[in-house]
Amino acid sequence: MAESLKPDICVIGAGSGGLSVAAAAAAFGVSVVLIEKGRMGGDCLNYGCVPSKALIAAAKRASVCAISGAFGVNSQPKIDFDRTYHHIREVIAAVAPNDSAQRFAGLGVRVVAGVARFTDPATVLVDGDMVVQARRFVIATGSSPCIPSISGLADTPHLTNETIFDLCELPRHLVVIGGGAIGLELGQAFHRLGARVTIVETARPLAHEDAECAQIIIDALLREGVEIRTGASVQSVRQTGGGVELAVKCGDGEERIAGSHLLVAAGRSPNVEGFCLEKAGIEFTRAGILVDGSLRTTNRRVYAIGDAAAGGMMFTHVANYHAGLVVRHALFRLPVQATYDAIPRVTFTDPELAQVGMTDDRAKDQGYRIRVMRWPYCENDRAQAERMTDGHIKVVTNGHGRVLGAAIVGAHAGELIAPWALAISQGLNIRAVAETVFPYPTFAEINKRAAMMFFAPAAASQTVRRIVRWLRRG
Ligand SMILES: Cc1cc2nc3c(=O)[nH]c(=O)nc-3n(C[C@H](O)[C@H](O)[C@H](O)COP(=O)(O)OP(=O)(O)OC[C@H]3O[C@@H](n4cnc5c(N)ncnc54)[C@H](O)[C@@H]3O)c2cc1C
């Protein structure tokens, strides 16, 4: 007979979002069942953030060797890709205990391995041998790689983020379909490790990002030797003796691109099929499960978070943010409202691209009278010392200095964006950053220099100059 459980909360999916809900709820003494059909840790640990950043870290070492001659340090990188493969496995293994079934069992969570399916609005069946009737359910089923409907693709061996980190030999020529963050990050990393890489993108790469910043990334990749076809649509794909061949339409012409391996990085689809959401009265579209501001679905007993929820952003920190909101709403009945104005996002290419809040174009579209402050990396002493002078910061405020958005393209941009996320989330004026003392010499000083630019017109005004002259006389 099927085992029956009646916890306070049942979480479906043990990735970034699901684990956060389970850990927090258990910490408050709430009974939690956590159901996972695959590997604990979900995409982020196994097929996403962690392995990709481990690969990028290895690639960075290779590129540092290649450019270190300018520092008077001469060395040639010698890539042992089998070691790189093991490095990635070791990083996953080092992080895995935090997400493990053992750790969660220790926190008091009942971890169940299996596929969860709704059988009615208040019941989930796991693999046909366990019934869970919870007071609240949290769907955190994540997303999967989109596989575009390209002629021949289904019959041609191809990699996705779920398989590429299993490669223990470096591809000779990696062809990447998709010039979004994942395609560019992985494309650059494999190229730095010695593969020839061709990225094929229908629109422009990083189409959703600030165009000026995105171009700096594209130029950097092109300079390194990554081949990028923009405005190019893949018509068909076929397997060849040496690997794959793509027929690609660029403008009026057609090109054939032959590679040894094909990576499909053409976006992500929320996981909404295969667990009978209809039986629970939970509405969804291809964009994900429909949720309100408190992340409740059309079934008031059920929440959806992370990549599976429609309208959010597909990032680990967003899944964690959602988890916090659900815990507050479901456990403490506090009013919550998911907002994305202060959520930063980072593309981990080299240079990195980090953004938070509005771009200048969006702020103008929304009717703001804006000010845009910039500061280039080449005016930063640390950037000069490190020979990392590519890029700039761009901060957008309203006329009074309230921070609306920031974009940083350059070294360590992902680290440098944090004060701007704080400024936007707390409604701070740019004066707060301008008045903060930053340590010298650090890349972080670009934040202060950009903030000080807000006051530059005032400093240049004739009235202010007259006052200063008058004070100096006195
Ligand atoms: C290559 C790559 C790089 C990335 N890099 C970054 C990055 O640098 N920074 C960042 O913030 N984000 C990054 N992301 C995105 C990040 O991985 C996701 O946003 C995050 O993992 C979403 O968390 P989640 O909890 O919604 O889903 P997931 O972490 O995917 O977890 C969902 C879990 O649900 C399970 N599941 C699904 N259906 C069922 C079912 N019916 N029953 C039981 N279990 C089920 C799945 O097996 C899975 O384990 C990256 C993604 C990729 C692909």
Write a compact overview of the structure shown.
With 474 residues, the protein is an alpha/beta fold. Helices cover 33% and strands 25% of the residues.
Provide a count of the helices. Answer: 16
Proportion of beta-strand residues: 15-25%
Which ligands occur here?
Answer: flavin-adenine dinucleotide
Strand order of the largest sheet: 4-3-2-8-20
Secondary structure class reads alpha/beta
Runs with pLDDT <50, length 5+? none
What gyration radius follows from the Cα positions, in whole Å?
Answer: 25 Å
Summarize model confidence as the mean pLDDT: 96
Q: Helix share of residues?
A: 25-40%
Number of DSSP strand runs: 25
Measured between the Cα atoms of the first and last residue, the distance is 93 Å
Largest sheet: 5 strands, parallel
Q: Looking at the structure, what is the overall shape?
A: globular
Helix-strand blueprint:
Elements: E1 3-5, E2 9-12, H1 16-27, E3 32-36, H2 42-46, H3 49-67, H4 81-99, H5 101-106, E4 110-113, E5 116-120, E6 123-126, E7 130-132, E8 136-139, E9 143-145, E10 173-177, H6 181-192, E11 196-200, H7 211-224, E12 227-229, E13 232-240, E14 243-250, E15 253-259, E16 261-264, E17 268-270, E18 284-285, E19 288-289, E20 302-304, H8 316-332, E21 345-347, E22 352-357, H9 360-365, E23 370-376, H10 381-386, E24 391-398, E25 403-410, H11 413-416, H12 418-425, H13 431-434, H14 445-452, H15 456-460, H16 462-473
Parallel strand pairs: 1-7, 2-3, 2-8, 3-4, 8-20, 10-11, 10-16, 11-12
Antiparallel strand pairs: 5-6, 6-7, 9-17, 13-14, 14-15, 18-19, 21-22, 22-25, 23-24, 24-25
Helix pairs in contact: 1-8, 3-4, 3-6
The structure holds flavin-adenine dinucleotide (FAD).
